[in-house]
């Protein structure tokens, strides 16, 4: 099925930044592996709409959140295969068509068109496979046939002699691992969200309907199980499993938080039972719900806010997108007219920033900081705060101040950004010299990662133009991949550059050993200027060196014990431990007030080198007295 036009993307610098995302199955934020080789495939499935009430802000928030994840995966160097369905066979659609006295197909088509134009306006990268259930009936039947062959299905016949097909909840041993819900909760949610736990004749109340025999007035298709139509979860199961590689490169199954149970639990269970695998997707990630002025947005309350209505009222699509990114994707949060008006102001400030004269070091610092915030379970509020801070550093009093963010948070972000600028200026002269238009550099980064176009007013172009983002891997200029050339048009959605970030892969023992030496020398500050080394020295006390020495020693063994993806994951885990040691060391030093300035700088430098979050600087700002803070700000050149 036709999707919608591709938003403009600039060539992406594939910087080895470790993206961490919340996985419902692990009930924790866990690292997504860096691609082991350039262009490695990552499967992304985000459950699509049931085509009525499209597109309200709750839908939009989910699709925009996964769009940022999609963009980050491309930025990491993955080639993303993005699949989305349209649930155009579903009880709620039939009920709505019935209520309004319209044909369900006509209603569906009209709503799908609306959805496409909303997604295009919101700069959401389209799926390569946009698949209607009505176009996938054969696939669904084939998947059901596998379950039937596996002997895990049975029929329940009603008084009229109609036989519906169910699949046993015990078809897989691991049922329940996605939501981690207990049976009582499962039963309640199943009843609430389209399930039929009370139906007589079922072997287990939690068994799911996979084929519903034809009823009067309902659409139906011929099948080996009689005329009828698919159940809800088996639809996504078939569409996902036939296009992504379940149990392998199927990286993320996404959707709203109301899909965790039953929908994603059952989708995974159906696929796993049919394919004989233990786990369909590697991450199950969900977006929070959107309320309006303090009340949950729902069709029953009649307070849904629609994207197309906001657009008709003249609101800028980028401001609508920013309203959805201003809160964390997993948080249930509110939309309001005030929030939207604030985003319009923010957008104007950002537009001023990128057309203003900007220090190239700031442009690079913004890029690094933006990636870091997003890498931390998609901290979009933090990412927006980075660009805001850049606005204030460049535009002074005219720069945007987010009224929803505490003042000390503003200061913390400015502090980090200024310290990063210093670091970048001292370490990346070559990169900085290659940036002709620092404002555009920021604009391209913001467009690529956040999907907010600051220099172009039109959307829907699939061309790649303009100055390429010179890639930066702060911490070691030799880590740079060479992504200066624009990618050919039409190949944008599949990452743009093919050079490996080999330094992070360690393909053989020699390069692993060399890399470890490089890291060791980096950590010991051997590549730093004497002044910078002085900043690091306090970190290198005996206990820290001892802890790090142990880590250096175990790394070769850990890398040798695995290959491919597992090796990258092992390295990522190890790197996390190194950063933890550093952070703890800095935390201890933090007790001495005289070190505040130095720690802020160390924090920012480590952050620029690829890992320590802004938390240290935030602590400094929150606990230091005003005079001391003023000294820090003066030293770092923050107004
Ligand atoms: Zn689905």
Automatic annotation (TrEMBL):
InterPro entries referenced in this protein's UniProt entry, alphabetically: Cys-tRNA/MSH_ligase (IPR024909), Mycothiol_ligase_MshC (IPR017812), Rossmann-like_a/b/a_fold (IPR014729), tRNA-synt_1_cat_dom (IPR032678)
Gene Ontology molecular function: ATP binding; cysteine-glucosaminylinositol ligase activity; cysteine-tRNA ligase activity; metal ion binding
Cofactor: Zn(2+)
Catalytic activity: 1D-myo-inositol 2-amino-2-deoxy-alpha-D-glucopyranoside + L-cysteine + ATP = 1D-myo-inositol 2-(L-cysteinylamino)-2-deoxy-alpha-D-glucopyranoside + AMP + diphosphate + H(+)
Record region (Disordered): 466-500
Its biological purpose: Catalyzes the ATP-dependent condensation of GlcN-Ins and L-cysteine to form L-Cys-GlcN-Ins.
Family to which the UniProt record says this protein belongs: Belongs to the class-I aminoacyl-tRNA synthetase family. MshC subfamily.
Protein name: L-cysteine:1D-myo-inositol 2-amino-2-deoxy-alpha-D-glucopyranoside ligase
Protein species of origin: Corynebacterium choanae
């Amino acid at each position: 099925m036709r999707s919608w036009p591709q938003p403009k993307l600039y060539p992406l610098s594939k910087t080895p930044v470790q993206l961490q995302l919340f996985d419902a199955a692990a009930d924790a934020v866990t690292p997504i592996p860096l691609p082991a080789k350039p262009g490695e495939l990552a499967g992304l499935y985000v459950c699509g709409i049931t085509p009525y009430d499209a597109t309200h802000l709750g839908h939009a928030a989910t699709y925009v959140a996964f769009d940022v994840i999609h963009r980050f995966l491309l930025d990491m160097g993955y080639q993303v295969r993005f699949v989305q369905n349209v649930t155009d066979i579903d009880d709620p659609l039939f009920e709505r068509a019935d209520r309004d006295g319209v044909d369900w197909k006509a209603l569906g088509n009209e709503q799908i068109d609306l959805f496409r134009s909303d997604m295009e306006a919101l700069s959401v990268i389209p799926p390569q496979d946009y698949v209607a259930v009505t176009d996938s009936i054969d696939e669904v039947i084939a998947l059901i046939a596998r379950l039937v062959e596996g002997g895990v299905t049975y029929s329940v016949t009603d008084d009229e002699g109609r036989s519906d097909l169910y699949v046993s909840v015990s078809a897989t041993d691991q049922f329940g691992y996605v939501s981690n819900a207990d049976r009582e909760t499962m039963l309640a949610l199943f009843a609430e969200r389209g399930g039929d736990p009370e139906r007589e004749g079922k072997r287990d109340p939690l068994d799911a309907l996979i084929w519903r025999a034809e009823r009067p007035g309902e659409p139906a298709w011929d099948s080996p199980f009689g005329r009828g139509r698919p159940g809800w979860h088996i639809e996504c199961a078939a569409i996902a499993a036939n296009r992504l590689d379940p149990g392998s490169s199927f990286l993320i199954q996404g959707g709203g938080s109301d899909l965790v149970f039953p929908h994603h639990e059952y989708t995974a269970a159906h696929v796993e039972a049919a394919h004989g695998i233990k786990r369909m997707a590697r991450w199950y990630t969900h977006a929070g719900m959107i309320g309006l002025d303090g009340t949950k947005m729902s069709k029953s309350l009649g307070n849904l806010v629609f994207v197309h209505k906001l657009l008709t009222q003249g609101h800028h699509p980028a401001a609508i997108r920013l309203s959805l990114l201003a809160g964390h994707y997993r948080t249930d949060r509110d939309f309001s007219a005030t929030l939207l008006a604030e985003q319009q102001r923010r957008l104007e400030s950002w537009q001023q920033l990128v057309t203003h004269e900007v220090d190239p070091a700031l442009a690079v610092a913004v890029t690094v900081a933006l990636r870091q915030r997003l890498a931390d379970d998609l901290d979009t509020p933090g990412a927006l705060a980075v660009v805001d801070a850049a606005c204030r550093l460049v535009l002074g009093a005219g720069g945007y101040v987010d009224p929803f963010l505490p003042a000390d948070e503003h200061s913390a972000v400015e502090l980090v950004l200024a310290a990063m600028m210093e670091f970048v200026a001292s370490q990346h002269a070559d990169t900085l010299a290659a940036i002709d238009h620092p404002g555009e550099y920021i604009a391209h980064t913001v467009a690529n990662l956040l999907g907010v176009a600051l220099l172009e007013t039109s959307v829907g172009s699939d061309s790649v133009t303009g100055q390429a983002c010179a890639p930066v891997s702060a911490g070691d200029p030799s880590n740079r991949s060479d992504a200066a050339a624009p990618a050919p048009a039409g190949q944008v959605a599949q990452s743009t550059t093919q050079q490996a970030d080999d330094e992070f892969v360690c393909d053989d023992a020699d390069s692993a050993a060399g890399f470890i030496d490089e890291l060791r020398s980096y950590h010991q500050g051997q590549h730093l200027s004497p002044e910078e080394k002085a900043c690091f020295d306090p970190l290198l006390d005996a206990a820290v060196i001892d802890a790090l020495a142990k880590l250096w020693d175990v790394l070769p063994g850990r890398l040798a014990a695995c290959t491919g993806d597992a090796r990258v994951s092992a390295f990522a885990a190890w790197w996390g431990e190194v950063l933890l040691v550093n952070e703890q060391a800095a935390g201890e030093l933090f007790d001495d007030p005289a070190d505040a300035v130095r720690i802020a700088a160390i924090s920012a430098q480590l952050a620029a080198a690829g890992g320590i979050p802004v938390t240290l600087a935030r602590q400094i700002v929150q606990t230091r007295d005003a005079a001391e803070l003023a000294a820090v700000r003066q030293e770092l050149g923050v107004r």
